[in-house]
Write a structure and sequence with these properties.
Its EC number is 2.3.1.30. This protein is an alpha/beta fold. The protein contains 5 helices and 15 strands.
Length: 189
Amino acid sequence: MSFTSRVREDLVAAQRRDPAARSLLEIALLYPGLHAIWAHRLWHRLWRRGFRFAARAGSQATRWITGIEIHPGAVIGRRFFIDHGMGVVIGETAEIGDDVMLYHGVTLGGRTHDAGKRHPTLGDGVAVGAGAKVLGPIEIGARSAIGANAVVTRSCPADTVLIGIPAKARAKQSGEDTRAVLMAPDYSI
């Protein structure tokens, strides 16, 4: 996929997920979540080629500008969108599938200082509400939704809703809309 096709895909994904988006130009110029992911792609490329210091320095510069910290070692899929973004932290061994959406204040963090896989893996289509913490080398199944301020420390299968501290899981109801789950007051703390 060409660079311009990938940028356009990101812009359209943001427009589809954000009801406040007015134009692709506005999104391209004013959405720090997109700026962070575009920069991450460059830093990730450097990281994979062994330019670790340059990649880390670039990711820190991006953090200062956007308020979003994405480690250059994190693996991120297509059409990833961070809404608002301030305070998002994505750790080095995190893996994020396609069509994933995070709100502000989300942490995909570790729970240990041990080497190896320390951060979560989010399947395709996962949505994570504002302030949620997803911690450790756990797997969140595809199309799952994590409510605002939930603290998730255990893996879950696909099509799961996780809410609370510590997060409790339940199966997503048939036809349940992820956006509605993230915004419903009974799903937040």
